[in-house]
Structure formats: structure tokens, C-alpha cells
Amino acid sequence: MSISTPHNRGDLGDYAKTVLMPGDPLRAKFIAETFIEYSECVNDVRGINGYTGFYKGKRVSVMASGMGMPSMGIYSYELFKYYGVENIIRIGSAGAILPELKLRSIVLAQGACTNSNYAAQYGLAGAYAPIASYKLLKAAEAECERMNADYMIGNVLSSDTFYDASQTTAKWGTMGVMAVEMEAAALYMNAAYLGKNALCICTISDHLITGEACTAIERQESFTQMMEIALNIAPVSYTHLRAHETRR
């Protein structure tokens, strides 16, 4: 069944039930080429390539979200709403706020604070608290333990501004916020609104306190532990597997 959305040319069934979603299109390409067998490009609109294939026998997809909540909001909404996707796992980079985090530490975002107005669209009489899907969070924690990863679970800040004129991002650390990124809150709100599952896993790429930072190519290709955690916890959908095999 052919589907037309403004940002995706894929057909129904082209995407797996679980989509890994980095911000960077080149990181999506790297994951598809490095980890996914029989990878097939199912979308190339605006250079945001989507790939579907198999990882350890599981059918999975990977597609970039672009940067920021408006971009994440568009791509995750279309995948959830129109393409039968049930789980989106964001695998991104984040800037550390808490001093105990180190470069390349893993953060699992149980909640996403935000300075965005994204939630205003729902007309709620209050402040909505975007949170991860517990079953994905629980699975990711178990996988971090199995892999002996250096990780932390807690809140992140999803910021609308990378270059913040107020220079107050570090103050979120006084409330225990671990790190700052730019997409998780929109992903979590879309998942809640549409009855889907979402998790944000980030690797610390820079540190707001120490000034340390990874290079662009390191962010693109060296955060493999985070990628493997997400791939290993991707739920299996046998129904979708059978449908895909029949269609082929």
C-alpha cells in the first residue's frame, strides 16, 4: 500500500516496527552499513535516508530525525501515525551537565525537561511531563548492565537553543538534570499522544563544565556501544516479519 507524506516516500510495511533514530543522517547511514544485514534504503526525501534490514535475525529500521524538536516531531509523527511503527529509540549525542558524567558515558532519559512550547498544541491546563516508555527503559538498563556500560538514568533537558543567549543551561544541573540534547521531549510527547513507545539513549559528546568534546567524525562513527544497546533491545515483531517475507 503506497503512502504519501510530505517527508517520506516509503510504503506501508517498508519500516520495521522498531526504528532507531539518530539526529545525524550520516550516523543513520553508518549504522545501516555497519550493523544491519540486507539493508535497503526506503526513504531519501530531503536527504533523510531511511534504511530497513535485519540485526541478529530481527527486522529493524534506522532513520535520521534531523536536529531539534520540530524536526523530530515531524519524522516521528509520520512514522508512528502512517507507517505502522510502534517503537522509536532515539540514539543521539548530548552535552553533560552533571560533573560525574564523562565523555562517552551513556545516558538513558527517563524524562525530558524542556524549554520548548511543543506541548502547547495539546491544550492542557498545566505543564506536561514527557517520559520514556518503561518497558524500553527497563530493557536498556538491563542491556547496559550486561555490557558493563558506564551509564546513568535520569532527566535530560530537551532545549530549543544550541547557542543559548541566557547561558543558563548548566543551572538545570541543580535539579539533577543529567545532560542537554534537542529532541527527546518531542519524541516522548508524540509517542504518548499516539499510544506508541519511545526511548532516548544518548552518548555524552561534550561537557558543559570541563569543556571536553568529541570531534564530528567521532560523534558520527564511534558511539557504537549506544548503537548496540538500542539494536539489542529492539522488540521482535513476528507478525511484521511474516508480512515482510510474504510481500517479498
Concise structural overview:
Helices cover 30% and strands 26% of the residues.
Properties at a glance:
alpha/beta, 248 residues, 30% helix, 9 strands, 5-stranded mixed β-barrel
Q: Which outline best applies?
A: globular
State the share of residues found in helices, binned by percent.
25-40%
Contiguous helical run count:
7
- Structural class determined from secondary elements: alpha/beta
Tell me the major beta sheet: 5 strands, mixed, barrel
Rounded radius of gyration (Å): 17 Å
The largest sheet has its strands arranged as 5-8-7-6-9
Uncertain residue ranges: 239-248
Number of strands: 9
Strand content: 25-35%
Element string (H = helix, E = strand)? EHEEEHEEHEEHEHHH
Mean pLDDT across every amino acid position = 90
End-to-end separation in angstroms reads 14 Å
Task: Explain what you see.
- With 248 residues, the chain is α/β, with parallel strands linked by helices.
- It is built from 7 helices and 9 strands, in the order βαβββαββαββαβααα.
- It has helices at 25-35, 69-82, 134-146, 184-194, 216-221, 224-233, 238-247; strands spanning 18-21, 37-43, 50-55, 58-63, 87-96, 106-114, 151-158, 179-181, 197-207.
- Strands 5-8-7-6-9 form a 5-stranded mixed β-barrel, surrounded by 4 helices.
- β6 (106-114), α3 (134-146) and β7 (151-158) form a beta-alpha-beta unit.
- It starts with 17 loop residues before the first strand and ends with a helix.
What secondary-structure arrangement, pairings included, does this model have?
Blueprint: E1 18-21, H1 25-35, E2 37-43, E3 50-55, E4 58-63, H2 69-82, E5 87-96, E6 106-114, H3 134-146, E7 151-158, E8 179-181, H4 184-194, E9 197-207, H5 216-221, H6 224-233, H7 238-247
